[in-house]
Amino acid sequence: MPKQKLTKFNMSFADLEKLANEKVAALNRDIVEFEKFEILPVELQTLIDALVAIPTDEELLADQTEVTKQKNKTEEDLRNTMGTIAQHVANSYSDRSSYYRKLGIHNLSQTVDFELKKLADRVVRVAPEILDEFVPGAKWSHLIAELHVLIDKFVANDKAQHDAEVNRELKTEDRNEAGNNLYEFLVKVCNNGKKIWKGKSEAKYNDYIIYDTPDPTDPTDPTTTQTTTITK
Question: How is residue 212 annotated by DSSP?
């Protein structure tokens, strides 16, 4: 798995979105003052929208969990059907016979994923050769037909599970990148906002604060502990 891009901000995505929306409001209020810096509220809003458009990890995890659940259910049905076919063979010849061994099903409990699919294909191919009851139209032919369906379903579920895992990784990359883009622009907005209101309005200056950290050099009131942004 490739190394993921790390976030450049020390807050949750929800908090970043909330903070950015607050700054959009401040930008709209101070749009005239920001004209000389060529910074518009729509630029910040566009970056917010880009982040919000990406599904959250909770959503993606839910999707991944659901397809995994479906795959596990299909796998269980696949094993049970193969087990039933094997039992019919064992009832006819015993589970120590060469016919039973020909099924290759003795290691069923340890067989997973692609090997399980290969084993199921083998059972489909071999079972009718062992017992006439498995040939089309015969007594237990419905079990072979059922196994055919389950094999296709298992392959589809396995692919869906893999796709969900990969999609979650890719969306995590996208979300981190969108968050970083938003945060970097947010820092730019706030640094300019503080420059605009430095020494003019403490209340408006504070509207452009990102993190609550001491800033002993803040010019608005050097006798108090002020808050400011953490910049790179």
Answer: E
One-letter amino acid for residue 149 of the chain = V
CA distance 173 to 53: 14
- DSSP letters spanning 99-155: HHHHHTGGGGGG--HHHHHHHHHHHHHHHHHH-GGGSTTSTTHHHHHHHHHHHHHHH
pLDDT per position as a tens digit, 156-192 = 999 999 999 999 999 999 999 999 999 999 999 999 9
User: Backbone phi, then psi, for 104, in 5-degree steps?
Assistant: 75, 20
The string of pLDDT tens digits covering residues 1-60 is 445 568 999 999 999 999 999 999 999 999 999 999 999 999 999 999 999 999 999 999
Q: Cα(137)–Cα(129) distance, rounded to whole angstroms?
A: 14
Nearest to 208 by CA among 7, 49, 200: 200
How far is it, in rounded angstroms, from Cα 44 to Cα 189? 9
CA 170 and chain centroid, separation: 8
DSSP 9: S
Helix/strand/coil for 213:
strand
Q: Helix crossing, 141-197 with 113-130: angle to 10°?
A: 170
CB of 140 within 8 A of CB of 158? no
CB 19 within 8 A of CB 11: yes
Q: Where do the domains of the chain lie?
A: 13-54+178-228, 59-165
